[in-house]
Amino acid sequence: MRIRKHCLIITLLCFSCLMNASGFMFKHLEVKEGLSNNQILDIFKDSEGFMWFATASGLNRYDGDRMTLFRSYNADPASLPDNYVESIQEDYKGNLWILTGAGYAIYSPESETFNRDVHEWLWEAGIDGTPALVHIDHYKNMWFYIKGKGCCLYMPESQLLYPLWFGTHQLPEGDITDIQECEEGVLLVYNTGRLVCLDSQTNKIKWQQDDLTRELGIEKQGIFTLFVDRDNDIWMYSPFGMWVYNPKQKKWLSQLADMTKYRSCNRVRAVAQDKQGRIWIGKDQEGIDILDKKTGEVRHLLNKADDERSLQDNTVMALYEDSSETMWVGTYKKGVSYFNESTFKFGIEHIGNINCIEEDKEGCVWLGTNDAGVIYWNSATGSRSAFPQNTTDKLITDAIVCILKTDDGKLWMGTLGKGLICYDNGRVTRYKKNMPEQQNSLAHNHVCALAEDKQGTIWIGTLGGGVQSLDLKTGLFTTYNTSSAGLLSDDVFSLCMGKEGSLWIGTDQGLSELDLETKKVASLKGTKSGKEYFSDQHISQVYEDSRGLLWIGTREGLNVYNPQMDELIVLGVEQGVSSPVISGIVEDDHKNIWVTTARGITNIIPAEDSKTGGYTFRNYIYDDKDGLQNCGFNQRSIKKLSSGEIVMGGLYGVNRFRPDDIKYNKKCPKVMFTRLFLFNEEVKVGKEYEGRIILDKVLNKVDQIKLSYEQNMFSVQFASDNYILPEKTEYVYKLEGFNDGWLTTAYGEVTYTNLSPGTYMLKVKAINGDGYGGGEEASLKIVVYPPFWLSVWAYVIYGCLAVAVLLLGRYLFPNAFKFTRSGGRVDVFVGLAEGQESQEMLEVRVADTGVGISEEDKERVFERFYQVDNPDIELSGSGIGLTIARDFVKLHGGTVKVMDNVPAGCVFVVHIPVKCSGSKPAEAEQAQVAGSLVEDVSTLQVPEPHAAPDAGAEPEEESNHIITIEGLEEDIRRLESDNAEEIVEERNIETISTIAPQRATVIQLVEGEDNEIITQVVPPEELPEAVTAVSGGRKGTASFSLDAEEKLNSLRDHVLIDPIAREVAITSMDEKLIDHAVKYVEENMARSDLSVEELSRELGMSRVHLYKKLLAVTGKTPIEFIRVIRLKRAAWLLRESQQNISEIAYQVGFNNPKYFSKYFKEEFGMLPSAYQCKEDG
């Protein structure tokens, strides 16, 4: 039974029992929307939410707002290898595998670059060969077909590889053209039509089907493509036909190639299944067939030249349904067409300019046009014809502004200037003003409104003649106008029969109510109490709903009047109406109100307040993006049909819809950050801005961006994965730290200027065009660094400078007071000054009115122990204070000088840079204190072995850079003698620099047993080697940075070292050690578990000692030392042996060929395979 059912389906497909395809309305993307080419070969949506289009000229990424193009450039190896892009897939890391005319390339979404050489990736996975076909299943496992070898399965998470080679693993030999998943595992199809199913658990062949191979023969070999639907039926198609195979029944359901008599099924290009289970079949030059497998119905979609919502091109190249149930169609010449049921909520019939709409008892619709009379339209079939067909009366071909089908079957039509027309079964009766054959005539020839009461009386609203009633039995007109009945105006635009036996009359001066029994007229310009007025007195339409509410349309908004409570509510643009110009009003079957305006329609949902009896309103706006005509609707041209369908007339025809059938997009959009701009310039990945890289990855992949205070004008662009109506997507956002409330924007961009330094969090949520969303938010941390003078380091410097000023004062101020007589003056000035090259400097001036300093003494006043010989000076010092002040200032990159004060005394001027003086990191390291070396000698950095001194370094001005400390003068003098050892022992000085290198002795730091740091006195002749050992061979002193106060305190206890740079000398003991280490590693080469601990035990030293020794001598850590020996042996084996790479990797101690390749490339700059090929060549 099931086979017969499927055969019936296939037969129906070929014989095409075509259904009306008007419900499938497409939106389109072409070159004008940014596509690089209109020939689409594949479509894909990635895990980030971006749409990708493979074209014949480049790869395109779409975010709903803009198209980003990726092309091939010969000068850029990180670009596409070829512009002809055939397919797109995504692996487990989010990378895209792109098949081009030049083979596969791997796209990295983080860097937006392409890896053209997939062999490196394949080699690391253990795959040898070039894949002709790659398939990534929904588990993100990767299937590779390598021509001539077979297939293999790679599981990235477990890094397991399962080969399925021809012959070895019983896989039939041949040319595989497609790989797809099915319930039982994986399907392979050959170019002969052979189907092979591999078990997903064992990766062994479960079944194979060769019937088609035997039937087609050799002459019909080619590219076969597979699609498996949710019933596990296998659809296979090629240029020779399409076939369906049911694996459960093990039978072919039908062969469509034999059924081409009525419709060709031989040229199928793509097959997909939508969420409703319908099968979409894209064909060459024949559009799309949509098959409902349950009912057997087929809808055929073709391009219609006069319908912009139809399929754009009849040759379909690709079909893809995304997670939002949107079906994307790639065409051959017209780009992309895409369909979603919630995109166009309103259908359209291009009939003409429709002024009025009426329905008869049979359900047929009568349309009054602006220039073609009346059109008879069958809304069920879509057929239409001019009416009437059996009359030549030209009046019926004029503009019809209102139309009424009465209970007796007559059709009444009002015109502008041509009076009233009645059509009754082929007979036309005309009513005009002052017609002699009529007993009394029409009051005016402009008829704008018609209505019928319960007695069958026709009510006529005219422009200039008021309201008339026509008694069909007597043929008499009765007139109600301003003079006879008290109407507000004789210009009547709308008539509405009330449920309480009254006729509501809309005029250009307000609303009148005619009691049909008493024939009395009451007028309203607002509420009866007179407290509120209509928003405008020019009434375009009046409509009474099922609640008894009056809906009054004007040119200045919609008025809702409750006669029972005498309450009036005005709804305008601010209250959610699409336009203040109201065209038409109607109520649907759910008592909701639909209002046409000059800018779309508004759906109003009233809700009654049970406590007050009043009403509240919830509004939804729709426009041309939802499928409406791109124009304003005509006045009063709206009608609800008996079927519940609502029809609205406009300039280009009618829009039609059933409120119950409207589909809403309930998928919450996901926000993607797309671009960052600085001063209107897009920030590129990896590009430096002001010496710093802002984006090391694309914006959507970073958690935060860091900006300087000068980068104070930036914009962040974002988009969402809502492609159904992206132009109606709204975004709510806030920048925490700047504004706490959510703001709304219709544009995917926010711009900020002059943000204060600090840390901010930008949060963005998206709401789709149907109001769904706002849940999931995207966040981006934004750090704006303060200017240097407001940074933490600046405040540290300020503190240091303050301390510096105080400490300078300790030596400068006593001098000033000491040499200033009683009654004199000492002035201190602290401020900022400009130095060389606009360098900002801290300036300290100490001016006194003392005895002053002579010119010859000014040159020597900063020398150690120098004192001015002046008999007038009562006090004297040690002669070291100014020296300490000078050296302290020099430590901070500053200067100090002395000058005369006018009229007496002297001025000491100190300049210290406010910002860093520009010393390099290596120089900064040399500003450390030797005593710190004793605390952690292991932190010394050892240079590369045999590294030459910096040839560009300038020699030091002095050989010592000594800062002597007050109270150490005697010790220093004693150091210049021959009893240095006694002084060291007495003062417990750990390391002392040379004052006179030819006579000095230093303390060498030595590592003793158990890694204990001990000291040892070094004779002068061994001074260079000792200093080199302490400093690690570097020029200058190895130490750590201190702030100003710590530096001074350290200087009081220690004296700086300034050794001469030397290369690290490798002694004979070192050579023996290295030989021993190399020999041991070579003997244990094949052992992957050889460890540093084992090597250190073999060499008889601690791991720390081995680390320092190998680093000092070879420049390598122990781990690197072992690895390099392994790699050099591997390189020799690659050159000399015939072993393959995996065998060599295991032989030299690597238990993973992937890591072996990685480290080999780091050491030799190329992969092992390339190295081997190079050597073989």
TrEMBL record:
Residues annotated as domain Histidine kinase: 812-916
Ranges annotated as spanning the membrane: 788-813
Stretches assigned to the HTH araC/xylS-type domain: 1075-1174
InterPro entries the record matches: HATPase_C_sf (IPR036890), HATPase_dom (IPR003594), His_kinase_dom (IPR005467), Homeodomain-like_sf (IPR009057), HTH_AraC (IPR018060), HTH_AraC-typ_CS (IPR018062), Ig-like_fold (IPR013783), Reg_prop (IPR011110)
Keywords: DNA-binding, Membrane, Phosphoprotein, Signal, Transcription, Transcription regulation, Transmembrane, Transmembrane helix
One annotated GO molecular function: sequence-specific DNA binding
Leading EC class: transferase
EC number: 2.7.13.3
Signal peptide boundaries: 1-21
Catalytic activity, as annotated: ATP + protein L-histidine = ADP + protein N-phospho-L-histidine
A Pfam family recorded for this sequence: Reg_prop
UniProt name for this protein: histidine kinase
Gene source species: Phocaeicola sartorii
